[in-house]
């Protein structure tokens, strides 16, 4: 682990690094085929009418300076723990910045000041535990922020409030246990929200009160125990909903009301034994819904008359059902182990 050092070579580890090295060598082959002798210690630089693209991966050495017209910059797999505050000085037109698969522990609040046109920031697989207040103060153009697989345990709404153009926010694979009220209040254009694989037990009631066009919501791999009435009520354009691998035992009758455009629903591997009447019919019939399927497997369903509403919906949508052999009754005793769909079809 190290801070930014243009003289230092780092050896990547793991499958991602191995794949990265293969891709790097392929790029070198392409460059060689075009009659240019590549330098393995240099970053790959390509030029176009829009500006320069720079990609640095081991064994390349990170340069002190980048082309002034750089619009794309990737510095990945170096295991860097720190970056100087002036790292991006001199490349004001930068639009995409990829710093994944390092070990960055923190960032300076001034880090993004030189790049006000930045649209994409990828910080996947680092060691960030917090974000400095003011980091995004000039990042009004940012539409994609990926903080996947860091070590965030808390999140403050003020850290993100200036990102009003954000369309894709990925906070998956962190250690978040709670979310602050008003976190997404200013994100009216948000299309994709990924909170999967954290440690969330509850969600603030106003979590989705800001976004008006959300299409994809990932909540899988948390510790959620219930899904209430109001969480999704303002998301009529939602198409993909992932709630699998939680501890859901209760879903409110109106939880899915208004989700007429839902193409995929994953409720697998929860603790659902029954659901309230009316829940499924609010999702509509098969003709215009669930074109990408649904999954109810891995739940301990009690197959009695309380599931009549679900039975009817299953029969109408059975061609969209995933893992029907793994969607079975846990009770009553006479039906234990039987496929839920078979029970639904029975007279």
UniProtKB/TrEMBL annotation:
Gene Ontology biological-process annotations: brown fat cell differentiation; keratinocyte migration; leukocyte adhesion to vascular endothelial cell; positive regulation of angiogenesis; positive regulation of endothelial cell proliferation; positive regulation of epithelial cell proliferation involved in wound healing; positive regulation of epithelial to mesenchymal transition; positive regulation of keratinocyte proliferation
Report the PROSITE patterns cross-referenced here: LRR
Q: What is the lineage of its organism?
A: Eukaryota, Metazoa, Chordata, Craniata, Vertebrata
**Could you identify this protein by its name?**
Leucine rich alpha-2-glycoprotein 1
List the InterPro entries hit by this protein, alphabetically: Cys-rich_flank_reg_C, Leu-rich_rpt, Leu-rich_rpt_typical-subtyp, LRFN, LRR_dom_sf
The keyword Ribosomal protein is annotated on this UniProt entry: no
Tell me which species this is from.
Balaenoptera musculus (Blue whale)
Task: Please report the stretch or stretches of sequence annotated as the LRRCT domain.
Answer: 299-347
Tell me the first and last residues of the signal peptide: 1-35
Q: Does the keyword Transferase apply?
A: no
Q: Which Gene3D superfamilies does this UniProt record tie to the protein?
A: Ribonuclease Inhibitor
What PANTHER family does the entry give?
Answer: KEKKON 5, ISOFORM A (PTHR45842:SF12), SYNAPTIC ADHESION-LIKE MOLECULE SALM (PTHR45842)
Q: Pull one GO CC term from this UniProt entry.
A: extracellular space
Q: Which Pfam families match?
A: LRR_1 (PF00560), LRR_6 (PF13516), LRR_8 (PF13855)
Q: Recite the UniProt keywords alphabetically.
A: Glycoprotein, Leucine-rich repeat, Repeat, Signal
State the gene name recorded for this protein: LRG1
Q: Give an example GO molecular function.
A: type II transforming growth factor beta receptor binding
């Amino acid at each position: 682990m190290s801070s930014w050092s243009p003289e230092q070579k780092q050896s990547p580890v793991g499958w991602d690094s191995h794949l990265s090295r293969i891709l790097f060598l392929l790029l070198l082959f392409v460059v060689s085929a075009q009659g240019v002798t590549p330098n393995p210690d240099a970053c790959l630089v390509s030029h176009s009418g829009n500006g320069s693209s720079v990609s640095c991966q081991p064994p390349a050495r990170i340069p002190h300076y980048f082309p002034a017209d750089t619009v794309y910059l990737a510095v990945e797999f170096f295991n860097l723990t720190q970056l100087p505050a002036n790292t991006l000085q001199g490349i004001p037109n930068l639009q995409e910045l990829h710093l994944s698969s390092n070990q960055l522990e923190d960032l300076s609040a001034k880090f993004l000041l030189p790049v006000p046109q930045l649209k994409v920031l990828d910080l996947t697989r680092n060691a960030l535990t917090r974000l400095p207040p003011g980091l995004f103060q000039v990042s009004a153009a940012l539409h994609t922020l990926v903080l996947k697989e860091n070590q965030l345990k808390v999140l403050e709404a003020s850290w993100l409030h200036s990102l009003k153009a954000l369309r894709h926010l990925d906070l998956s694979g962190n250690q978040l246990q709670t979310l602050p009220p008003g976190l997404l209040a200013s994100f009216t254009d948000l299309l994709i929200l990924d909170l999967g694989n954290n440690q969330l037990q509850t969600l603030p009631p106003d979590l989705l009160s800001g976004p008006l066009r959300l299409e994809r919501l990932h909540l899988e791999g948390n510790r959620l125990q219930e899904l209430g009435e109001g969480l999704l009520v303002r998301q009529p354009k939602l198409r993909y909903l992932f709630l699998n691998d939680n501890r859901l035992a209760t879903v409110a009758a109106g939880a899915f009301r208004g989700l007429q455009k839902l193409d995929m629903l994953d409720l697998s591997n929860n603790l659902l034994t029954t659901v309230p009447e009316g829940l499924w019919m609010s999702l509509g019939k098969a003709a215009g819904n669930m074109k990408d399927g649904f999954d109810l497997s891995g739940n301990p369903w009690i197959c009695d008359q309380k599931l009549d509403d679900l039975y009817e919906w299953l029969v109408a949508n059975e061609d969209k059902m995933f893992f029907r052999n793994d969607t079975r009754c846990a009770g009553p005793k006479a039906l234990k182990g039987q496929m839920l769909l078979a029970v639904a079809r029975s007279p």
